[in-house]
Structure formats: C-alpha cells, structure tokens
Amino acid sequence: MKSFGFHSPETLEEVFALQGKFGEEAKLVAGGTALTIMMKQNLVRPSEVISLRCLPEFRDIQPENGTLSLGALVTYSEVEASPLVRERIPVLAETYHHVATLRIRNMATVGGGLVHGDPNQDPPPALIALRARFRLTSPAGAREIPAEDFFLDYYETAVKPGEILAEVRVPRPSPRSGQAYLKFLPRTADDYATVGVAASVTLSADGTKCEEVRIGLGCLAPTPLRAREAEEVLRGQELGPEAIREAAEKAKAITDPLSDHRGSADYKREMAEVFVRRALEQALARARQSLGRSG
Length: 295
Ligand SMILES: Cc1cc2nc3c(=O)[nH]c(=O)nc-3n(C[C@H](O)[C@H](O)[C@H](O)COP(=O)(O)OP(=O)(O)OC[C@H]3O[C@@H](n4cnc5c(N)ncnc54)[C@H](O)[C@@H]3O)c2cc1C
Fold this sequence. Notes:
Helices cover 38% and strands 25% of the residues. The chain is an alpha+beta fold. α10 runs antiparallel to α11.
C-alpha cells in the first residue's frame, strides 16, 4: 500500500478545508471497511486520508416531521439495534442486520456504505423501496437526492468532489403499508447476496387495492435499480397472484447482472423473478396485518 498522510479533523469546516487543500489526492474515511481494502489492493491510492470519525455531527438517528433521519456516521449495528428504527421502520433494522458479520456492522457506516457504491450491497434496494433521500453537504451548500438517482455506475455515485454525504432521510411508511427485504444467500450467511430485493406495498383504505408500491433490486445491474415497470403493473390494482407474477416478470426484464462466483447471469435473472414475487407477497402480508391493526 502506498504511504499516506492521516488527518482527524474535529469540525466540518476543517474537513472542507482539508478537502480544498488536497483536492483529488485526498479520500474521506468513515468506518474504513471498504476503503482500506481498496487501498490494500491498490485500487485507490490517496496520498491523504481524512477521517470523519472525530466529527460530532451525523452520528444520530432522529425523528423529523414524519421522517427518520440517519446520520451518515451511524453504524450498521446502531441502525439494527435502534428502538426508533425497529418501531417505525422495522424493515430497515432487518436489512442492516443482514449485512456481513457483527464485526463489519460495528464499523461500517450508513454514509460510507452508500458512497462506496457497490451494487451488491443490501441497504440500497431497501432505501429505494422506502423512498429515502440522501442529503449531501459542501461549502457551496446542501442538496438532496432520491435514493434511486444516487447510484450512477459500478462504484460511482452522484457525490461530487468536495461533497460529504451527511444524512439519509427515510419517510415513515403509511400505517396501511408493509415492507420486506429478501436477501438470497446460497453460500454463507455473512456473504454478499446473489440477489437482494426490497418491496413496499401500501393498500387502499378498504384494503382491496394497491395504492402505492415500490420495488428495489440489488446485485442485478451495475447499480441498484428501481423496478418502475413492475410497479406500474400493480399500482391501483388488486394484488392477486397473477398481477404479482406479471410484476415479477417485468422486474426480471430490466435486470442486467454479471456472472460471478455467486451465480451465472441467467441464474440471477431467474432468481430476481422469484425473489421479487416473494418480497411482494411478504410486503403484502405485512400491509394486511398493519391494516388490521390500524383499522
Ligand atoms: C468482509 C466484508 C463483507 C461485507 N459484506 C457485505 C454485505 O453482505 N452486504 C453489504 O451491503 N455490504 C457488505 N460489506 C460492505 C460494507 O457494507 C462496506 O464495506 C461498508 O458499508 C463501507 O462503510 P464504511 O463506513 O466502512 O466506508 P469507508 O470504507 O470508510 O468508505 C467507503 C467510501 O465512502 C467514502 N465515504 C465514507 N463516508 C463518507 C461520507 N459521509 N461522505 C462522502 N464520502 C464518504 C470514502 O471516501 C470511501 O470512498 C462487506 C464488507 C466487508 C469488508
């Protein structure tokens, strides 16, 4: 590994000043679980590393006007253990719980995972299904991006040089809705998924139709995907087995996975269809339970 200077600024202003001084020579680090591997493999060779770990900001999980705000420096294990997350958006706790091992989850941060931009990660499909928005900040100001517009290509995101991912804002789901994240893991429990699918279904007030639906896909293209055509099949319809099957076929049609040691591209496409169907069924069952409780 190339030698590098290490900086531990204690304010956001210092972070921005260091980024301004070193420009593209510098890399931010949060949990370090992805960056250190990339550096050891010489895939990135920063001459300066700026740690975000001493910043007091971005460490909280807070309710805010109908959303839950996850600071970028919150760790995966903090998300999975948070009573607020478990009570308000349980699928988020389930999703983060499914990542790797506890040792990784104790270090990896919400922001670091997203900026890493690996299309095989678990949280992005769930955040797409949950209509999350990501807040970026820089000396020029702040902006928000919907989760589905954040990922541009393999390991490439919408974060511009000099920007920091500050916060992930997740709207609290409607009481008539249910969510599911399913991770297909044919190898070991701590592996990356072969296919990851998240679904969120909101029922009409009388419970007969699908008022709103979102489907997020992971491991199935150069970026996490939102399966809009599949959603269109279901929106406003009764969610019977036929409609769900048709939606799963539509979702499969937009996938473009790579063959690797977790499965061939053809196998992953087939599994995409199966897991979209199952995720929709589970989200629907949870929406019905939730409607039963609230009605
Ligand atoms: C053995 C192993 C198994 C894994 N298995 C899984 C799995 O099954 N599922 C899964 O989803 N993930 C898995 N991961 C990946 C893990 O999710 C990522 O390594 C982790 O999310 C990265 O978070 P971090 O905080 O450590 O990021 P870092 O390594 O600190 O940073 C990653 C990138 O983000 C940038 N960055 C960090 N924070 C910010 C910020 N706030 N603003 C702007 N840029 C920032 C850094 O400059 C760097 O480019 C695994 C990782 C390992 C090592």
